[in-house]
């Protein structure tokens, strides 16, 4: 009964307030840390936000205490953020919908969304992952499930705790639609949260997905006691692998030089605020992958992504020694020394591999 009263009050406030002109009615789907900060930024910009979460307890906490204590304790949420467990209530009147759920549940959640959302709604993925079994990116799933929707992806070096603390942060909205890019820039505008644009959705998504693999490796080397020199070499060799793989998939290699590529890679390879980094750190300290996952206590996309990428790299004949080394540690119980070997004994030793490829393209000599 109380939930119905809250939802009724939301619709009264959001859609019937006299004299209020709304750019859009906005939903955020997913009650994790990033979904929470995105919902709050939008709300603080003057928009009413329906926030879909799975838990009755979280619905009550958001609507009464204005907090998500599981993921961001002490972070005060705007009263404009109203939580609900009911998907129809969450999306039926929205024309901009952010989807912030793990890749493992992304397709099923999107199927629920499209049952109730407008066919013309903008669907924006914030998920950094790849679907198991299909190797579909989240934008591809959105387009499959909602063929008429305008689709976009949001990605970048966006640690939720730092956003919540108003640290200066940049992100990238990628879409084929200028309307989507402009709308997302508007609803997420903030003095501390800067939104850049790109039309290369695949590149932006792959940057956000692939960097999770290398964040695990960075954490692993830190757990082994290695220092900044190692991390620097690791980041640059990781970027080379990301560009090499992304180009084969159809991404623009230059995208990986931006915020959603090297920017995201640097931050997640440098801090224990990254779940994937913490997984790797635990592995480097001698824990099993199961023990590491239990210690972190949240979904670390890189564990699943490395399995998918290793298989796809073999299929496409893309040389990815670091990703392959991590796969052997996680899935084949190989010793951690395989990562060191991948760094120090790999066959290709060209420093700036992409520069040579770019020159060939410019000269028209590449096949």
What are the salient characteristics of this protein?
367 residues, alpha/beta, Rossmann fold, 2 domains, globular, disordered C terminus
Describe the 3D structure.
By secondary structure, the protein is of the alpha/beta class. It folds into two domains: 2-199, NAD(P)-binding Rossmann-like Domain (Rossmann fold, 3-Layer(aba) Sandwich); 204-363, N-(1-d-carboxylethyl)-l-norvaline Dehydrogenase, domain 2 (Orthogonal Bundle). The chain is 54% helix and 11% strand. It has 17 helices and eight strands. It has helices spanning 2-15, 33-44, 56-65, 87-91, 103-116, 138-145, 160-164, 178-187, 201-223, 228-249, 259-268, 275-284, 289-296, 301-316, 321-332, 337-344, 353-363, and strands at 26-29, 49-52, 81-84, 96-99, 122-125, 150-155, 169-175, 193-198. An eight-stranded mixed sheet has the order 3-2-1-4-5-6-7-8, sandwiched between helices. Helix 14 (301-316) packs across helix 15 and helix 15 runs antiparallel to helix 16.
For the sheet with most strands, the description reads: 8 strands, mixed
CATH level-four homologous superfamily name of the largest domain: NAD(P)-binding Rossmann-like Domain
Shape: globular
Number of helical regions: 17
Oligomerization category of the chains in this entry: single chain
Q: CATH topology of the largest domain, which one?
A: Rossmann fold
Q: How many domains, as an integer?
A: 2
Strand content bin: 5-15%
Strand line-up across the major sheet: 3-2-1-4-5-6-7-8
Helix and strand composition category: alpha/beta
Q: What are the secondary-structure elements, in order, as H or E?
A: HEHEHEHEHEHEHEHEHHHHHHHHH
**First-last Cα distance:** 66 Å
Helix content: 40-55%
């Amino acid at each position: 009964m109380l939930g119905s009263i809250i939802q009724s009050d939301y619709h009264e406030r959001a859609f019937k307030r006299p004299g209020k002109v709304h750019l859009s009615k906005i939903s955020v789907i997913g009650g994790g840390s990033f979904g929470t900060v995105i919902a709050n930024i939008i709300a603080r910009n003057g928009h009413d936000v329906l926030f879909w979460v799975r838990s009755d307890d979280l619905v009550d906490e958001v609507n009464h205490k204005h907090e998500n204590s599981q993921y961001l304790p002490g972070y005060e949420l705007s009263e404009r953020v109203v939580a609900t467990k009911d998907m129809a209530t969450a999306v039926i009147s929205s024309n901009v919908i952010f989807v912030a759920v793990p890749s493992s549940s992304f397709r099923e959640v999107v199927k629920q969304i499209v049952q109730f959302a407008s066919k013309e709604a903008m669907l924006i993925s914030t998920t950094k992952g790849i679907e198991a079994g299909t190797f579909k990116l989240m934008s591809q799933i959105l387009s499959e499930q909602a063929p008429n929707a305008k689709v976009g992806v949001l990605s970048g070096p966006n640690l939720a705790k730092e956003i919540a603390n108003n640290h200066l942060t940049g992100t990238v909205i990628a879409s084929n639609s200028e309307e989507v890019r402009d709308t997302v820039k508007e609803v997420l505008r903030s003095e501390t949260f800067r939104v850049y644009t790109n039309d290369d959705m695949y590149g932006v998504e792959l940057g956000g997905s692939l960097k999770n693999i290398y964040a695990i490796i960075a954490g692993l080397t830190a757990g082994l006691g290695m220092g900044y020199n190692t991390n620097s070499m690791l980041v640059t060799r990781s970027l080379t692998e990301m560009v090499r793989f992304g180009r084969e998939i159809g991404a623009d290699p230059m995208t990986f030089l931006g915020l959603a590529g090297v920017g995201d890679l640097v931050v997640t390879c440098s801090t224990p605020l990254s779940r994937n980094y913490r997984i790797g750190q635990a592995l480097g300290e001698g824990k099993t992958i199961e023990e590491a996952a239990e210690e972190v206590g949240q979904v670390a996309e890189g564990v699943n992504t490395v399995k998918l990428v290793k298989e796809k790299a073999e299929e496409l004949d893309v040389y990815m020694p670091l990703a392959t080394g991590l796969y052997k540690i996680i899935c084949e119980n190989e010793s951690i020394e395989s990562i060191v070997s991948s760094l120090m004994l790999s066959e290709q030793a060209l420093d700036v591999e992409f520069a040579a490829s770019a020159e060939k393209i410019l000269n028209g000599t590449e096949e």
